[in-house]
Amino acid sequence: MALLSPRFLSKGMSSSKLLLLLTLFFTVVMNYAFYKTVLALYPNIDMFALSLPFAMFFILYAAFQILALPYLHKILIPLLLLLSASIGYNALFYNVYFDTNMLENVLQTSFTEASKLITFSYILWVVVFGVVPSILYVIVKVNYRTWYKEIGVRLLLIALSAAVIGGIAKFYYQDYASFFRNNKQVVNLIVPSNFIGAGINEVKRIQQANRPFEQIGLDAQQVKQDGQKRRVLVLVVGETTRAQNWGLNGYQVNGQLRQTTPKLAALGSELINYPQVTSCGTATAVSVPCMFSVMDRSNFNSSVAQKQDNLLDIAQRSGINILWLDNDTGCKGVCERVPTENLTGTNSAEFCHNGECLDDILLQNFEQRLQADPNKDLIVVLHTMGSHGPTYFERYTSEYRHFTPTCDMQDIAKCSKEQLVNTYDNTILYIDQFLDRVINTLKKQPNLNSALLYVSDHGESLGENGIYLHGTPYSIAPDEQTHVPAVFWASQGWQAQRNLDLSCLQQNANATAYSQDNYFHSILGLMQIKTALYDPKMDMFASCNR
């Protein structure tokens, strides 16, 4: 308690002692999630494991000697403390790894979406481990030496730290190299280096985005036959729905089948279910731009995608009308150059509350939108909220609160596994009825040849291995975050016009592992858009045209 006494704070301490205490706090407290993960990956308590906190301490101590410039450090260090507390909470309780993709995801998150993550536990954590230490750091008096002595002492401390780090490296270099080579993403748990590194990479990404816009697919032309009916393709982009809980995939709970997609299942052979689809990313900010980009997951670059034509641009250039209807947190740049309506701000007491809307709002005036221009084919994109958490209970109406008990709070770590899964499964029941409504609406348009393709952007972790939500770096992401559901439906007219063999499609769907890399080429094929960019080998439908 002496550290908190007014006398001690007014008397102050040397910069060396202050930075020593700061480094201890970061090493022991702020990086607890890192040690917890390391012990899970490397349970042997040997000299290598024991050396880790010492290596971290001396690396941080040397870094703080450089960062803690007189006067400026009273702003910089509290900022690091607050950010570290905030990020550390999510790392410890949800196993969230903070990398460049996560930072990009955070920057593109709406206020409403972010507010769902702010719980009492989170606020208490940030106050205790962020706000209070920041206040103490600001008010404590720092007794500086003369400038040349201050520089000399800091250089000496940096040299001593480097010597200790060098000594650890001499004896345990192979252990460090092996562990971090095999567990690269674990460094994204270390604060403050994780968010500082992510920030530097994000600045580089923004600089890369200042490139000239690149038009591609300039040769795109739609193949049409005289007298054929107008074609309408509805692309439903799901949100945070994972394949493991998708009823059509044979989902089980405690060894018993659980049907979370009863209405889609009732369509029988009319509907093609794709049980083996993987996402391009583990967050919307990556997956959605990647889905609509000509780039595949292996070479996808969000900076390039922002400055390059995507699938919708090419389709629009070929003469097809495009309409993007959004009930999520935006299209992540995909819809910038096509007609778009954002429905999240709609003042609808029936569908909306607290700045968010149920997905059924996307179907208001849906029939009129389908019939708007009788002279052109149409692609409608319905960007849904789907199963977005952590407030899963807000994604459906009471009518679809079928699986109980549920988790009706935003602090999901406090709910039982059963409650959390039940609530999540109810979101899929609601998605099921939503897709069924879209299909039934399309069936009622005899003047149209219509089709629907649903693919979720990414999956979700529900506490498996202590991991919640999504956004885990792809290289270590669990299947729950990368295995996504997908279904396809086509009207009789569409099938006849394209000579499409549904039994062939279902056979391929069951036997073939697809990914969102197939999306770009499959849509071009469905809409018969000819361009040199089109790769028939990547088209999920090409081999089933009779």
The amount of beta strand, in percent, is 5-15%
Kindly state the number of beta strands. Answer: 18
Helix content: 40-55%
**Distance between the first and last residues' Cα:** 81 Å
CATH structural class of the largest domain = Alpha Beta
CATH superfamily of the largest domain: Alkaline Phosphatase, subunit A
Radius of gyration: 27 Å
Q: Write out the strand line-up for the largest beta sheet, numbering strands in chain order.
A: 9-8-12-4-13-16-7-17
- The average pLDDT score comes to 93
General form: elongated
Report the oligomer: single chain
CATH architecture of the largest domain: 3-Layer(aba) Sandwich
CATH topology-level name of the largest domain: Alkaline Phosphatase, subunit A
Low-pLDDT stretches: none
Q: Based on helices, strands and strand pairing, what is the structural class?
A: alpha/beta
Number of helices: 20
Major β-sheet annotation: 8 strands, mixed
Comma- or semicolon-separated keywords:
546 residues; alpha/beta; Alkaline Phosphatase, subunit A; eight-stranded mixed β-sheet; two-stranded parallel sheet; 20 helices; 18 strands; elongated
Short description:
This protein has 546 residues and is an alpha/beta fold. The chain is 45% helix and 13% strand.
Structure description:
By secondary structure, this protein is α/β, with parallel strands linked by helices. The chain has helices at 6-11, 15-30, 32-41, 47-67, 73-94, 100-107, 111-115, 120-139, 147-182, 193-209, 262-265, 284-291, 302-306, 311-317, 366-370, 417-443, 479-482, 492-498, 502-511, 519-526; strands at residues 13-14, 142-143, 221-222, 230-238, 252-253, 256-257, 271-278, 321-326, 340-342, 352-353, 356-357, 378-383, 448-456, 461-462, 468-469, 483-490, 514-515, 529-530. It is built from 20 helices and 18 strands. The strands form 6 sheets. It has an 8-stranded mixed β-sheet, with helices on both faces. Strands 1-2 form a two-stranded parallel ribbon. A two-stranded antiparallel sheet has the order 3-18. Helix 2 (15-30) packs across helix 4 and helix 3 runs parallel beside helix 5 (73-94). The termini are far apart. The relative contact order is 0.13. The mean pLDDT is 93.
